[in-house]
Amino acid sequence: MRHRPSRAFPAARTQRGLTLVEIMVAMTLGLILLGGVLQIFLSNRQAYRVQEVSSRLQENVRHAVESLASDLRAADFFGCVNRNQVTNNLDPAGAGFEEFSASGIMGEDGPAGTPDSITINGAFGTPLQVQPPYGPQPSANIKVAAPSELTVGDIVLVSDCTSGDIFQITSGNPGHNGVLVHNTGAAVSPGNYNPDSCSGGNAHCLSKVYKGDAYVYRVQSVTYSVGAGAGGAPALFRNGQELVEGVENMQILYGEDTDEDGVPNRYLPADEVNSLDGVTSIRISLLIRSLDDNVTLEPQTYTYNGATITASDRRLRRVVTMTVSLRNRLP
């Protein structure tokens, strides 16, 4: 039997590596993919940063608007009487004296587009009803329910629907026992003065004896202004305390009611209004910026106070305008 010679199988071809061209092609494709991923990452990161800064900016806007609106609505509030029926018993020679009943609002225009400021006067907070025993003299202390948040040095208003008196609590523990002492000569500022009609060296007479139909309120004088904050950035201040960071400008117009129907006929700066007593609404425009720079890709262009401005940085800015009716001046 004849045997066929066995056929040898060819040796397997061995992989000996990549050519330079193949490596260059692979690297090029890898770089293209990496560049695309990096671009997506940077775009998402920038979008997230803008969203984060915008949210913080919106929160600052909300805080500023709510604070201003709340205080403006309290302007000229003196219980159920108007300010012309209120007697201010504070010592005009005392430090920090405020003529609370002179006007509910006072404005000051900043020169050449710089920030304006505004001062708001009125009573605020939860009223406390006057409790017996009443009087018997107008110089006697006033009793309210206790406990309360009243402290020595607080300036308060007591009023019924016929008249009111502003005075300062001078001693005792009013928050604990509800007794509101209003003597003169105490170590508080500005203190109370002693009118000629009030007998006694340290007696202080109010305009009347207040009874159970009267209520006691805290009295406030609040000034809003714009200045440099603690970190050097511009900020909105309330009575000298930094309230909202990033506020660059505040422009205020006063809605003057010239025909006494409760509706403003024109909006003017404070120094152009005939009488602030005729103002029934306030229009405030705020310019607020982000604290972070390099947020926008290009400097932002915005319109504020009638002018179109291109920023010199890449911060994010918002313009917000609010109009608040002075409800205590409406018919």
What are the low-pLDDT stretches, counting only 5+ consecutive residues below 50?
none
Total discrete domains: 1
Q: Give me the number of helical elements.
A: 2
Most strands sheet = 10 strands, mixed
What would you call the shape?
elongated
Beta-strand content bin: 25-35%
Radius of gyration: 35 Å
What is the helix fraction of residues, given as a range? 10-25%
What value does the average pLDDT take? 87
Secondary-structure-derived class: alpha+beta
Number of strands: 16
User: What is the string of helix and strand elements?
Assistant: HEEEEEEHEEEEEEEEEE
Distance, first to last CA: 131 Å
Word description of this protein:
The chain is of the alpha+beta class and 331 residues long. The protein has one domain (54-329). The chain is 18% helix and 31% strand. The chain contains two helices and 16 strands. The protein has helices spanning 20-73, 174-177, and strands at residues 86-88, 105-108, 117-131, 142-144, 155-159, 164-168, 179-180, 215-228, 234-238, 241-245, 247-256, 266-268, 279-289, 301-304, 307-310, 317-325. The strands form three sheets. Strands 1, 2, 3, 4, 5, 6, 7, 8, 9 and 10 form a ten-stranded mixed sheet that branches. The longest helix is centred in the first third of the chain and has 54 residues, at 20-73. The mean pLDDT is 87.
